[in-house]
Amino acid sequence: MFNEKGCPLYRESKSLYMGEGVGYCNLDCHCSVCEGNLHYCGNRDALKNYFNEQRREQEGTDPEKRRVTRLDVALPLEYESELGSVTSSAMTINLSLKGLLVRCIKDMTVKTKLKIRVFYPEGFCLDKFEAMAEIVWKDEHLAGEWSGYQYGLRFTHIRDEDLQKLMIVLIGTPLGNDDSIKIFD
Fold it and tell me: Which residue from 102, 115, 123 is spatially nearest to 162, judged by alpha carbons?
């Protein structure tokens, strides 16, 4: 459905004051002036995202590339480095069987190994599960007045009883005795 201008989202203007050859971009609901040339698009990132989304819909592919689904959940977390540093606090952003995304104010390096304790509500009390994790990526994060870091943590070791607790957080029920699940590659 490309027009002579090249962009399928280009729409000719019906008014005289726009000028000849100038129209609107259908991508942003007629909010920007457009010449229809894909090479000189002012909304290049949005246009790329639009075409990628159209391709995924046609192919029936899922944009989620992770092999394990994550649960968006904010839970308090305590951590210390494997070397026995002072216990510090953080907050989970999301959680899966393979790892978690956390935010904290402490600057740490990628590949740092941590002992973590994640607290979650269990009835009227707090319970926790513990695991060993490694920082696999880090990013500076700004949210309003707050600034700190986001870390992607990958579980490196988790005991069976703590895995059961993690399953309770993720799906609301522990694994049965005959269920098996592979967490570590």
Answer: 115
Rounded to 5 degrees, φ, ψ at 136 are: -105, -20
Gap between the Cα atoms of 16 and 26, Å rounded: 19
Rounded Cα–Cα distance for residues 7 and 109 (Å): 45
Structure tokens of 39?
């090479």
Rg (CA), the chain: 24
Sign of the CA dihedral running 45, 48, 54, 55: negative
Task: Note whether 114 and 155 are within 8 A (CB).
Answer: no
Residues 18-54 have pLDDT tens digits of 455 566 666 555 455 666 666 666 666 666 666 666 6
> Bridge partners of 10?
25
The amino acid sitting at 44 is R
CATH number of 71-171: 2.40.10.220
Q: Could you tell me where in the chain the CATH 2.40.10.220 domains are found?
A: 71-171
Count the Cβ atoms, other than its own, within 10 Å of residue 34: 24
